[in-house]
Each structure stands twice: as structure tokens, then as C-alpha cells.
Amino acid sequence: MARVVLAMSGGVDSSVAAWLLRQQGHEVIGLFMRHGEPEPQTCFGPSADDARSLPIVTAPQARKQGCCSATDAADASRVADQLRIPFYAIDFQKEFHQIIDYFVEQYMAARTPNPCIVCNNWLKFGRLFDFADGVGADYVATGHYARIEAPASEGSARAILRGVDGGKDQSYVLFGIDRRRLDRLMFPVGAYRKEAIRHIAARCGMPVAEKKDSQEICFVRRGSYDQFVRARTPGRESAGLIVDSQGTVLGRHAGIERFTIGQRKGLGVAVGQPRYVVRIEADTRRVVVGARDELERHHLEATNTNWLVALPQKPMRCSVQIRYNGAPESATIEVIGDRRLRVEFDSPCVGVAPGQAAVCYAGDRLLGGGWID
């Protein structure tokens, strides 16, 4: 069978993905991507001799290195040992600082970032392929809840489909993958429901069978997002006024990084009726609040698009998802310029947030998408 590099996070999904690949007869190499805030080092990469043959591997150093999570690294290593597969912990901290910088700058620009998509584009399906090439692997696999569909006919391309478990589907965060990578991708758990994955893990005696799913951004370890952003922007002023849609001052806020479009709780003002963040102005540092119907948008534009199908040459019907857990909305899309996309919704869409992704689907098939302006 094939040699497969599998991104192992220490969670139940990637652990069962390793078992499934082994059951299919593949040669599996586990890879833990070390990043996030510094913590005491509990795992190490390959030896210096091994690192010479793997150009992106950082060999162990005398000083301590940080891990994404010491517990996660240890869990991934234990599963790899149990399945008798090679396991490497690779230091991606230098590259990951770019993702943290993106996260901080987006909040300070009054946008709502999605670092999981950026991490997929730059690391999981970017540098991970560099590692795969370094060890002569045929495929790269992850524990994402998505599916790969074989070409329907000769000359057609492979497709990414939504995962079978609609409540866990992660195809939204995969829109930025280079289309040329599709022939080398595997998503072993995408054809299963979450409960089935946990059942397999328990049946195999995996130590992560009941481990909770990660719900937070991995590098924000302590406190809230705004505290994380403020700690990395000392001396940068972001406080300002909270106003209504007519410009009436309702109060003051401590920083625009505390707010996202559609937010209702924690606004710091009381006007006797529900109010939502409808706009954030980076230049004036004003946070504009209003009634829920003021969140409605009939259209949006997105930039830096990426397509997993042939670029649409004329307006086309599809569904568009504007947030990770959001429902798809019926719409007409049109490519309007260099890597730009216009979306016209059939019905008003609530909570369109600049900085998030607008991701397009034809049924379960992922077409592509872009970043909302």
C-alpha cells in the first residue's frame, strides 16, 4: 500500500485515523506539529542524524522548547507506540508566529480572524507536504471530518466533500487548500460519525477514547482573546466610543479587539432592548451597535479566493457558508476580478463578519471561497 504522513494532534480523531490507515494496510508516519505558547518540553524531534535527511525537522536543542500542549504531545506519542508507527514531534513555532501575528493584526484592524483556516493553508497542507516529500510519502492525512471523492470520470479532479457527521463537518476550514494537493490528501475519519470514532478508540483501548474535543484556538492558552491581543500590542491605542447607528454616544469601550460582528453579550451598555455589534471602525475605533435587523446583509464581497474546481466563468447557483458552525445560505456567486468574489443571498444573511471566510458548496461538494471584506 502507500506511505502516509498523518498529522497527529493527540486527540481521538487523528488517533483513530492512524488506526484506520493501518487497517487499510498503509505505512503510517505520525507527525505532531509543535506550536503555541511556550511550555516545558516533554517531547522531542528526531535525532540530529535523522534531521539531516528531513530538511524541515528541528533537532533537539539544549534549551527547552514549547509544545502545542505537553499532554497532547504525550497522548499522540502513546497512541503511536500502541500502533507501532514512527512518530515525530516537529518544531513549527517559528512559522506559527506568522499565524499569531495574523490573528493579532486582524483584530486590531476590526476584522474577525479565523486562524484555523490559515493554519491549514500554511502548515497542515503547506509545510506538512514538505515533510511528506522529505520522507518519500505518497499521501498526507489528517483527522478532519471531511471526505475525498475519487474522480467521476477520466480527466476530472478529486473533490472534497462534507463529512458524514454534519455536526462535526470541518470542510469549511479546508477551502484554501491548493487544488494540486487533492490527489495526495486523505481524511480517514470523514466517513464516520463522531460516536463511531469514539467507539473504535474505546474498542482498541486507546488512552484518548474519552478525551474532550478541543474547542478553543490552540495558542490562546490563558485568559480571553482580547487579553491575548493586548499583550502583543503594548502601547497601541484601541479604546474608543460605543455608538448607535445614528452616531449617538452610548458609552466607551476598552478596545475594539473585544468585539466581533453579531456580538450581543458583554457590550458594556444598556439601552433597554437587545443590541448587537453591527460594525466596527478601525480608523475611528468606534463600535456601532444596533437592532438585529441591522445585521442583515443581502450581499458580500470576498477577496483572496481559492477554488478547488475550475474557476467559475459566469454567475452560478450554490450555497455559501459564512462561519464555521453556520448554516449554508442559498446564493448566486460571481467572480468579479482578480481573486475576488461577489455573493448575492436569496434571503438576508445575518452576521456577515469581515475577516471570516465565505465558503461555497454545490450540495456536499466544496467548491472554494474567499475572505470577507
Q: Summed up, what is this model?
A:
This protein has helices at 12-23, 48-53, 70-83, 93-108, 115-134, 194-203, 225-231, and strands spanning 3-7, 27-34, 87-91, 139-141, 146-149, 159-162, 185-186, 240-244, 249-253, 276-281, 286-290, 296-307, 316-321, 329-337, 340-350, 357-362, 365-372. With 373 residues, it is of the alpha/beta class.
Present the secondary structure layout.
Layout: E1 3-7, H1 12-23, E2 27-34, H2 48-53, H3 70-83, E3 87-91, H4 93-108, H5 115-134, E4 139-141, E5 146-149, E6 159-162, E7 185-186, H6 194-203, H7 225-231, E8 240-244, E9 249-253, E10 276-281, E11 286-290, E12 296-307, E13 316-321, E14 329-337, E15 340-350, E16 357-362, E17 365-372
Parallel strand pairs: 1-2, 1-4, 2-3, 4-7, 8-11
Antiparallel strand pairs: 5-6, 8-9, 10-11, 12-15, 12-17, 13-14, 13-16, 14-15, 16-17
Helix pairs in contact: 1-3, 1-6, 4-5
Describe the protein.
- This protein has 373 residues and is of the alpha/beta class.
- It folds into three domains: 3-143 and 188-203, HUPs (Rossmann fold, 3-Layer(aba) Sandwich), CATH 3.40.50.620; 237-290, SH3 type barrels (Roll), CATH 2.30.30; 295-372, Beta Barrel (Elongation Factor Tu (Ef-tu), domain 3), CATH 2.40.30.
- The protein contains seven helices and 17 strands.
- The strands form four sheets. The protein has a six-stranded antiparallel beta barrel with strand order 12-15-14-13-16-17.
- A hairpin with a 7-residue loop joins strand 13 and strand 14 (329-337).
- The protein is globular and about 65 Å long.
- The N and C termini lie far apart (45 Å).
- The model is unreliable at 40-67 (pLDDT under 50).
